[in-house]
Each structure stands twice: as structure tokens, then as C-alpha cells.
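How a chain folds remains the central question behind the approach discussed here. For one protein, we set the task of working out the C-alpha cells from the amino acid sequence alone. The sequence in question and its C-alpha cells are set out directly beneath this paragraph.

_____
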Amino acid sequence: MYKVLIIDDEEPLREAINILGDWKGLGVEQVLEATNGQTGLEMLRREKFDLVLVDMKMPELSGAQLLQIAEEEFPDLLLIVISGYNDFEYTRQAIRSKVVDYLLKPVNRTDLNHALRKAVDILEAKRKRESEFINRNITLNMSLPKLKEKMYLSIIERSFKTQSNEAFLPLIGADGAASHFAVGILRMLNLEQVRKERFHEDRDLLHFAVTNVMNENSDGQFESFSFASPKGEREFIAIFTMKGGYGADAAFLSLHHMKKAASTLKELFGIVCAGGIGDPYSDLLSIAGSYEQAKEALDRIDLLSMKDSMILQSGSTTVKPVSKDNPSLTGRMPQIRSSLESGNVNHARSIFSEFVSKWKSAEYFTLGEADRTLQEFIILLNEIAAQLDAVPPQIRSSKDKGLHALGIRSDFASFEQFEGVLNQIFDVYAGEISRTLSGDRSSVLENIKAYIDNHYFEDIKISMFTDKYFLSREYLMKLFKGQYGYGIHEYVQKVRMDKAKALLSDPGLKIQDISEMLGYKDKNYFSKAFRNYYDCSPSEFRLQLPGVEK
């Protein structure tokens, strides 16, 4: 999918291009607009575009000037020039800037889509060449790395069988040579953003780029072999091997290599990383312990103090211990559920926000705690939603019960971003619960009203409804009045009084009979209620009816 920018100071032309372009057929996902050249340049510097349509004559920054800047700053950017002047100077600049096509105003559908198709064909050909180049490299280097990866994983998972793999031990440096081995784990904290913006959602291409960076600068003395972790797409495992030397040297080189890789990934692709490194071992078959230490160091990185990529070694003084003071969400969920159930989403949010603020003001809050909290929060909300028959439809229809199913990015490289992910989760569930219960409440209120309309002559108590629908008296009274403008008792009285007027219109009915028909056992009590409601007694009301003798 492609992203296009239209730069033109004339709104009618921008609108025409938007309407005439066959964007869907060309695979264009997003079309943005800029009202002048300066704004367009700022957008180009801020966002990545595949194709730009630019008017040559604009205020502030002309199309010709923009082409010159684009030629230097965005050499791979494709451009289509639009002009109302068949001027050779514009054409010469367009040729110099290697634009895809040159269109004259007024733009027509055929010429526009022909130019757009030409640009898209160039983009597709370029991507195909890049993909073929990468695929060739992957194919050529696939067999050996995959075998090494499989062996390293089996050692880390403690399932490696020495006898059956003896012939391959030299491949991974476990042939008795004096070496030291350590394990590092690198986590991409903004994976989904980078994969979408820099790798066009291509997972394999992203993995290829990351492992290439992590394996760079290896030599005969110190080597790094990395691969994507099967336990999570955000994490990469690196096996560091140093031939000869001391364990302290291996530890220093491993840390230096990881920090350099993290810095390079940030510089090249904008990837923000967190990493942990375990202790070095002289026996490769013991690196499972180094992996566990690396994972523990990664999990204990303090999210509250994290500003950029951070790599920590096992045993580092900056590695935070497991927090015993940070409270769990579990204890607050009954209050949150109660507020959501009563329709008070804002109160539920304030309870949740107050709880999150306690983490924010804590001494530290680790990555591991953040991961566990996200999983716990979704599980707890799923339980509440299931009990209320309000599970989000995307969760019901998916095997995945996590963030991906909810359509929420799990990227977070700071506590503020982590809080943002939590709020998005809360919003999805709160919204679905509110929608579901809102429909249920309408049905409940309609049922109560219908019951009163048909049983107004009975002794109606509010407890009948609170017990049946599991709602508090105060909340039910508030809902009913909000819906119909009357409290429940007021509505019962209204229905009885409306019926009383209708029955009093029949001269064949005695007031005593009407009183009993309305559920009043005492004629005097009925007369008093009627007078309070209409400012006259039942008898006086009858005398006011037409055709009744005074």
C-alpha cells in the first residue's frame, strides 16, 4: 500500500485530484494534502511518502524550489508535476529532478491515472528488486544459520542431546576449544510502529535487518550470532562467543556489542531497544543459565527512568529488584466493575487512573511488571465482560485474546506510552460494556413500564424490580426517571389517575367500584389521592363531564 501527498494552493484542484484518482485500484492507502509548498516540505520531512503531486506555481515555496530541495533530501521520492503553464523552465526543472510525469491544468481523469499508474509501476518494480535481493541473500545463507539457531535454542530450552548432535558441536564452538559464551536478549519497544513505517509490514524483512545489525563487526576472536526469539516477536536472542581470554573480557565485549547494536538500530531504523545480558560461561552447554539471567535483567529495567534504548548486564547495580510494594489491579477490579455496571464510566476511569498514578509515583516500575500488568488487565476485563455478556466482538471472533485481537499496538518505550496502552484497553472494554448494558437497561426499563401499565391495580413495590434485575434501588429510580420523566411510584400514580378519569366517564360505575378496580381498598383514600392529583374529588370531576346533570 502506498502513501501520496498532494501539494497545491488551489483547493478545487486538490479536490479534483482526490476525486479523479483511482486510488483503491492503484493500491494507495492514504492521500494527504498540503495547501502550499512550505507546508508540503514540512510534511515530507515529518512523514514518509511514496509519491508527491506538486503544483509548480505556489506562494511561499514554488514547485521548482520544492523539486530542488526534494532532489537533495529525498532522492528516492517519486514526483508528478502539475502546472497551468506550458513553460519550458518548469519542464526543464522537472526533467532535471527526474519527475515521473508532467501534467497540465485542468487535470483530466485519463492523464492523471496514467501518470499515477506509471509511478506505482516504478514503486512496485523497486520493491520487487529489493525483495528479490533480500530473498537471494536469505536463501544463500539460510541452511547453516537455521541449523545453528535450532541447536542454540535446544541448549537454551535444556533439551539438547549431545550424542545425537555430536557431529555439529564444532559448528557452534562446543568442540572443546577454550572459549567463553554469553547470551543477550534485545527487545524492540516500538516494533509495530517501525514495521509499519519502515518495513511496509514485512516481518521477515525486519528480522533480516535487525539480525544483520546485531551480527555486524564479528571477527575471529569475538562473534555474535542472533535470531528472532520464538517466544515473542519483539525479542531477539544473541549468542556471544569469545575465543580464549577471560570471562570478564567476554562480559565487557558482549555489553559493548549490544549497546553498539542498539545505537545502530536507533540510528538506521528508529528502533528503540531494551536489552539484558547474562554472565559468560566457559561451557556452551551451560548457556541456558546465561539466557535466564539475560531475561531477568531485561525484565527488571526500570520503565519509569527509561528515556532511550537501555542495555543492562546481569548483576548490574542499576537492575531493579522485584517490587513488593506495587499493588495489583485485581483488588480494584470489583470497584471498576461496579462503576461500569452502573453506567458510570468516568468514575471507573478515575478509579483506574488513581491506581495507575500509584505506579507512576513509585520508586520504580519494571518492564516485567508492565508485561504482566497488561496480561492481567486483559484477563480481568475479559472475565468481567464475559459475566456481563459484553466481550468485545474482535475478541469473540479471534483465537488471539490479546492486544492484537483488540487492534491495539503493544509498543511502549516509556511509562507514559505504557499508560496509553492501558487506557486504550480500558476504552475498548468500557465502551463495549456500556453499549451492551445500555441496550439491556433500555429493555429492563421497557419491561418495568409495561408491567406497571398492565398491573397498575396491584400493590407494586420497587423491590420487585431491584430483585429481578439485580439493580440498586437508587440506580433503578434514577434510570427510570431519566427515561420517562417520572419516578416509579409517580408513574404508578399517573397510570392509576389516567385510568380513574377514563372510568369516571362511565356513569354506570360507582366510585367505590372504580376505587377497587384501581387497587385502592379504601374509597376515601382513592378520593384523597384523586383530589391531590387533579384538585377536585372524583364526584366533582364527574359533574364537570358534558351531559351530566348538575
About this structure: The domain at 169-313 is CATH 3.30.70.270 (Alpha-Beta Plaits).
